[in-house]
Specification:
Elements lengths: L6 E5 L4 E5 L4 H20 L4 H21 L28 H5 L1 H33 L4 H21 L13
Antiparallel strand pairs: 1-2
Helix pairs in contact: 1-2, 2-5, 4-5
Amino acid sequence: VGGIGMGVASRGEHGSTMLGGESGLLGVAAAFLAVVSWFTIVIAGTHISGIRQFTSFYLRWRVRALAYLMLLEDPYPPFGDMPYPASIEIADPPARRRLSVAFRIILAIPHIFVLAFVLFAWAVTTFVAWFAILFTGSYPQGLYDFGVGVLRWRLRVEAYLLLMVDEYPPFSLA
């Protein structure tokens, strides 16, 4: 779906190593543009509007795709930027805080660590929810609310890492 992640795999007797990730093409482009944005914000204090527009589009697309993959929405997400029940709005920050941007990845480490466990719990609950949907025809409300909270938290951290917002994301599913 275009996340930001990397992995290294090694296999076989000859020790062939492969570098890959869960990223789609849009995710790789967004990550690359976040690096470019990091330099422009830290050095010049501005976020290039074209990069900001692309990253905003990427996050709008990502929320739709993840909502569908996380079983939170039934209709297939549209291609492009059409309306969809799951959406995200990102306001332009009034002034960029260069120091916050400079240490962004370090500041996000606690979120990444905790979110890894939360995403694992989400995977388990989604597996349970899938069977509940299969047999009862409805998503259990508590599991649905947990999935929505995980999606919100993940997107807040991703928007923070992609330099779209300066506000530190809360450790919250709300």
